[in-house]
Every structure is written in C-alpha cells, then in structure tokens.
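Readers of this paper often ask what the protein records in our data store actually look like. Such a record has a labelled line for the sequence and another for the backbone structure tokens. Nothing more is needed to write down the fold, since each code stands for a local backbone conformation. The remainder of this section carries one protein's record, kept here as part of the documentation.
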Amino acid sequence: MAEEITKQQRTSLIENPTEVQEHQNDICSSLLVILSYFLAFISFPISFIFCFKVVQEYERAVIFRLGRNLSGGAKGPGLFFVLPCIDEITTIDLRTVTFDVPPQEILTKDSVTITVDAVVYYRIFDPVRSVNKVANAQYSTRLLAATSLRNILGTKTLQEILVDKESLALRMQNMLDLATDDWGVKVERIELKDVRLPVEMQRAMATEAEATRDARAKLVAAEGEQKASVALKEAADTINKNPVALQLRYLQTLTDIAAEKNSTIVFPIPIELLRSLPGAVNPKSN
C-alpha cells in the first residue's frame, strides 16, 4: 500500500514539474528562514537594531520575505519584527496627498481652445495592492487625472464648462476613483481651479458683455424717463387745480436759492399780479 502511494506521488510530481519547483522553493525558503533566525539569535545585541522596525501612525509597512508577501497584510503602526537579509520592507504613507494637474489645452465641443488646470486629493487605502498592482501609484494617478480631465471636458461646450464646474468635477472624481480602485487608491476630491480663454475670445466676450450692459442701461433710462413724465403730468394736474400751489412752489424755490448764499436772487412775478395793475394790456383785446 505504501509503495502504491509513493508511486502515485512520483507520477504526480513527474507530470507537474511546476509543483516540483514550488516544493523545492518551499524547502529552500524554510532553510533560509531558519538560518536567518539563527543568525539573529547568535548576534542578538547587534541584530536588535536591524530586526526591529517602527512605522508611524499614518504609515504601513509591506514586507516581502524572499519575494513573497507575508500573510496578514501590511504591518503597523508601531513596532514589528523582520528577519535580516531575507525581508524587504516598503513603507506606504496613508495620508491624503494633494497634487496639481498640469495645465491642459483642451478643444471643447464648440471648437474653442481653452487651458484648464485642476487639483486632486487622494489617499492610499490598501498598501498591499498599491505595491503589487502598480509600479508607481502616485505617478500613475497623476497621469490618469490629466487624461480624464481632457476626455471629460472635450465633450462639453464652453458654456457648460463655465457653468457646471462642480458637476464636471464630481463626474471626473467618480471616473478616476473607479479606475484607481484596483491600485488601492481612493480619490477623495477634485476641483477645477481655473479655465483660461484665448486673448481673442476674452476680447470678444468683453465686447459682448459691454454691449449687453449698454443696452440694459438705455432700457433702464427709458423706463425712468417714462415714469418721470407720468409723475410730472400728475404734478401739473395737481397744481392746475389750485393756483396757490404754484405760489408755494415759487417760495420753496427761493428758499433753496437763498440757502446756497448766492448774491443774485431771482424773484418771479406772477402774471395775475401784472394783470391787476392799471393800464395792463389785455391779450384778448389784441
């Protein structure tokens, strides 16, 4: 029975050479780990400096032992033990990172060339995936942010970009977060900083805005003249009903002139007073 089991194991190992190689690697790895423990034990006072590592609260350590990830994921924060010569440590910062997207020249949907720059806030939430899935998570995220900015704004008109900045930033954030999720990167926020137009376009828009303001000012002035004419007509009708009101208005005008300390005073003479004088010409007789 034992001979049959050994024969089956031999045949399986012959048929699967990869399993044989993995088995040999496991044996070699175990021997190296034992040897590393032995070296750390015999050189304990000195190996203490190299075997114990400390990471901060905002950091995590990804450990590769003979090229493979240790079970349990990233280590930290605090103190942890590593084996000399066979363990390789990669420290990942978990704090939010901010970077400026370089200004991108974009051709909008209505064939207007604009220059747009943005700012991106992101952080690493899975240190193991950020090390194993991508060579440089930060650099890849920056390149993807610049590409996403051009792709999204290229499908919008200039008016939509100027009006809907928040919705475009939210759409870009969702798109970028979905693409970087496999890298262990979380995009928290994206803001469009500035949209710069060509000089010719700025002049054209300024001319159009100035013409709009002039037309609006003329319309307001015309409405004011209309309201003033209505008010003057009502005032004239009121004064016509009572002639004494006109005399009071004369006195009020004289009071205003005298308050300014003028040397010349104009005193209006009512026509009714001239008519009451003897020898006055009657316009009806003429």
The mean pLDDT is 80. The beta strands are 52-55, 59-65, 68-69, 78-81, 87-93, 97-107, 113-124, 185-196. The two ends are 156 Å apart (CA to CA).
